[in-house]
Write a structure and sequence with these properties.
Layout: H1 12-22, E1 24-29, E2 36-41, E3 43-44, E4 50-56, E5 69-83, E6 96-110, H2 116-128, H3 144-151, E7 154-169, H4 176-186, H5 191-198
Antiparallel strand pairs: 1-2, 1-5, 3-4, 4-7, 5-6, 6-7
Length: 202
């Protein structure tokens, strides 16, 4: 997380909303060698206490017994972009990069195999519903043989969250007009980030 407290005053509610909307992140686990890293789609529970996901069976993170919990961090990135010092319209500025990032820490736990199919159904329904008016794809469209073969390659997991930390670096350390001028200039390049810079989430 960025050390400047100006970028860490956004409420947890906005961070949870971002996590739910993005539903894709990076899992990181410490090891005696290089850290293990996996990029995964996921589904945040309504109570925000856990996340559902699956991993390929051959993934080193998946090589644990059912019920075994491993300390893990999940990183979810929001919009980001380069900020030119010219955009502030004030002197003696330097280039920077504005961004939104949420870090969740917790325990990654392997579930029983029979949890996989219901998990996959909830996950695909979540993403398919965002493609409206397209009809929702369901696993019933797969033949039994293909479905069995595909499901044999993945395992169900639950990530139980314990802490949330976020950085919303949106130019809060600049004079308000300078931040707004930069947001106006950024709008043609990264509109989602520019909108956040104009209307700072509290």
């Amino acid at each position: 997380m960025h050390p400047n407290p100006s970028f860490r005053n956004t409420s947890d509610g906005h961070s949870w909303e971002l996590v739910s909307q993005i539903s894709f992140g990076t899992l990181v686990q410490s090891t005696s060698g290089l850290p293990l890293i996996s990029h995964v789609p996921f589904l945040l529970s309504a109570c925000q206490s856990y996340i559902e996901l699956h991993l390929v069976r051959s993934n080193p993170m998946a090589r644990v017994e059912v019920g075994e919990a491993v300390p893990t961090t999940l990183i979810v990135n929001g919009p980001d972009g380069y900020i030119s010092p010219d955009w502030y319209r004030i002197d003696d500025q330097v280039p920077t990069w504005n961004y939104v990032a949420v870090h969740l820490t917790g325990q990654l736990m392997r579930l029983e195999d029979d949890a996989l199919e219901p998990l996959l159904t909830r996950l695909s329904d979540h993403f398919e519903s965002q493609l409206h008016p397209k009809p929702i794809w369901t696993m019933e469209k797969m033949t039994d043989d293909v479905k069995t073969k595909m499901m044999r390659q993945i395992l169900p997991f639950k990530f139980e969250t314990s802490e949330l930390h976020s950085t919303w670096k949106l130019g809060q350390n600049k004079p308000e007009q300078a931040r707004l001028d930069a947001a106006d200039a950024l709008a043609d390049h990264v509109p989602a980030l520019a909108k956040l810079m104009k209307d700072l989430p509290q």
